[in-house]
Design a protein that fits this description.
The protein is an alpha+beta fold and 237 residues long. It is built from seven helices and 17 strands. The chain is elongated. Bound molecules: uracil (URA).
């Protein structure tokens, strides 16, 4: 689809129509190596790449991201006592009203998905879709077979209407457990271990669907989700 340059920049989060018009006229935008200072010039948006103040961008109808959330960051635009995960992202994404698909507690680290596509967020977080989330939990007390059996058969948690169970539980060591759930209730993993008389002392989300955080993305860093990643989340844009 063809769009004016000003609309393109606006849709990609570079600011209001007025701000984008000013930016194009003052600094220019490079497209295919050529500078354009006309906000009304039309460009095909499919596969469009452009440069604003020497930074390269690709036109994206929607953005899908993975952030390796560090401990000590809140999943909120208005954090109470800590920094916000949104401070780790370029302002263009905030302007695009990017949202978190399944929040993590302030002390939890690992795989955090974000997007400005509401249907994608619903797909990842809705209990009906059953997208699995895998966590690695460091525990205060040794983990027993009895605790494992209770987590698999389901535990009652305050204010939840039904028992919540783990779809997979793997004891990695005496005090470290990998646990997979297909819901995302409030503090679910910490509360589930609490319900079997243990206590989570460290928590990392390693995987959502078949998408793993891997070793290539250091804490605090983000990257775009590419087609292969979206496939692992069973999401077709
Ligand atoms: N369960 C928790 O208890 N905390 C998280 O951050 C995610 C799942």
């Amino acid at each position: 689809m063809k769009q004016t340059l000003v609309k393109i920049l606006q849709s990609q989060g570079f600011g209001s129509r007025k701000e984008c018009t000013w930016m194009i006229k003052k600094s220019g935008v490079k497209i295919d190596g050529k500078e354009c200072r006309d906000p009304k010039q039309l460009f095909e948006t499919d596969d469009l790449t452009f440069e604003v103040t020497s930074q390269k961008w690709t036109f994206r109808p929607n953005v899908y991201l993975v952030l390796n959330k560090p401990k000590g960051y809140e999943c909120s635009h208005t954090p109470d006592h800590h920094e916000s995960v949104f401070e780790l992202l370029p302002v263009q994404f905030i302007n695009r009203k990017i949202q978190i698909a399944g929040r993590l507690d302030v002390d939890t680290e690992g795989l955090l998905l974000l997007s400005d596509d509401g249907q994608f967020i619903h797909h990842v977080t809705s209990p009906k879709k059953g997208v699995r989330k895998t966590y690695l939990a460091d525990l205060k007390h040794p983990f027993s077979d009895e605790q494992k059996a209770m987590l698999v058969s389901g535990v009652e948690l305050h204010q939840e209407h039904e028992k919540l169970s783990a779809t997979e539980v793997e004891a990695v060591s005496e005090r470290q457990v990998r646990l997979t759930i297909d819901r995302g209730c409030y503090h679910q993993v910490r509360r589930m271990f609490g319900a079997v008389s243990n206590r989570v002392e460290g928590l990392k989300r390693e995987k959502v669907g078949e998408l793993s955080i891997g070793d290539d993305l250091p804490p605090g860093e983000w990257r775009y989700l590419e087609a292969v990643d979206l496939e692992r989340l069973k999401w077709v844009p």
